[in-house]
Design brief:
373 residues, alpha/beta, Rossmann fold, seven-stranded mixed beta sheet, five-stranded mixed beta sheet, 42% helix
Amino acid sequence: MDQAHASWAVDELGPALVAFLRPCTGAEAVVVVDNVALGPAIGGVRIRPDITAGEVARLARAMTLKNALAGLPHGGGKAGIAAPGLAATGSAAADHERVMRAFARAMQQLTDYIPGPDMGTSETSMAYIRDEIGRAVGLPSVLGGVPLDELGATGFGLAVCADVLGEAKLLDLGGARVVIQGFGAVGWHAARLLDERGATIIAVSDSQGATWNPAGLDIASLRVHKKSAGSVSGFPDGTAVPRDDVIGFECELLVPAAQPDVIITDNAAKISASVILEGANIPLTIQAEAHLAERGVLCVPDVVANSGGVICAAAEYRGAGHAEAFTEIEEKIRDTTAELLDRIRDRTLTPRAAADQMAQERLQAALALRRRF
């Protein structure tokens, strides 16, 4: 991780802290605490060999806005771990545990940051961190946690968001063709829940490839195939297609649930979907969102659509159980999505601008109550 040339945006909201760490041999990390006006920051720990401080800072800001929009008593933070050897070996259990425990010790004194699972980490990862320093969310149920990836909290929130769009006559889920980009913890649960609501999942991709069936994919069978083969590629009841082509397939709903910045201005022009639910964090660039808004494509921003995971994590942190956490996800995402739709009704604001406006109002109200001397 290049510290000397690292850069990130700075404004009145933050970041409050950027810490570079070398937790153990073969691993470097950065923790960004963006803003704590509403309370201690919650955000995931992401492992990627090419993670940068700039990306982590952008993700931390997204968490600040997401937590504010959801009405949570938490600020935004994020951590990134670059461990190329770990990624190359498929995150072998012993190496993964060594890196997570070392990372936990290295960031122990950053008490304004509460880590949770993210890309490359899991409930087990959070158990290691909690064991070392006493704080983490997204824990295994055996430790009293509400395992948000296992239960599909983020995918559930996406489905709730789709329900609200349906009730507003902006999306007809019954028979709607859906493309899922990324078939991990978020994409799998989103596909399952949208399928249960009557949608037709016609294409799914992951890092290794993609599969397509215009008549609809059997999501349960596809999940079994992915577990055994390691990819959706080669699914016998689908046609193999180039991984990056799926965003251009004819459909009503596109759910990007993979990496950041996968949809940019260049490939946004290929999108035929009328609605995009951002399942990943920052999957579209601001420029791509603006381009799509001009075309009349409704992009529900990540800070609204995929907030189910952090709502679940915050509920767990205060001691809530599974049922209470999922009730809260539904209530909060319903309210936030409805308010977003109300603010964009006259088309003077894009969904992203409206979400930023909503979050800023709540953050500024909180900042006004903090000590200024």
